[in-house]
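Worked Example 4.2. Consider the chain below.
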Amino acid sequence: MHLDSYNDEYLFKLLQDGSETAFNAIFNRYSKRLYVEAYKRLQDTEEGNDIVQEVFFWLWDRRKALETPQCLKAYLVQVVRNKCIDLIRKKTSTRSKKQQYLWLADTQTSTTLIENKELGRLLAVAINSVTPASRLAFEQLYLHKKSLKEIADEMNINVQSVKNHIHRALKVLRENLKHSLS
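Applying the procedure from the previous section yields the following structure tokens:
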């Protein structure tokens, strides 16, 4: 069974049921990204590879006990970060630990900012693909916190039409973001 086209949530459920094919699909999808994360923190090829292997071993070993994460990629990246911190704690002296912690906090913040910028860009592109009326209803509800009735009055349509516009906007956003994030 070829699972590369399936979404993370479905793959994770298969993984929890013991599917090695799902595990391999997750490994193929995220191992390079996780290696980059580990290498960025450890600056060592061998240790970076070891961390990635350890994370996937941990994932397989704990698959039944883990709850399905909202975003598998972000979840696995955080596990790598934690494993890197554990490794650094083990191998550094007390005096240099403070420097390492500061460096880790710094790189985590900048990585998070970069990921947030990219997510913001993807969201802007997705929002621009929504029809103008649906986008207006969506923005009024979620960004300006207006009620459905207020939006209906402003757009000179009934409340059900506003709900339909918002439903269409959410559907388009989900589809565009699903394709962009996978």
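The chain has a mean pLDDT of 83. The radius of gyration is 21 Å. Compare this with Example 4.1 before moving on.
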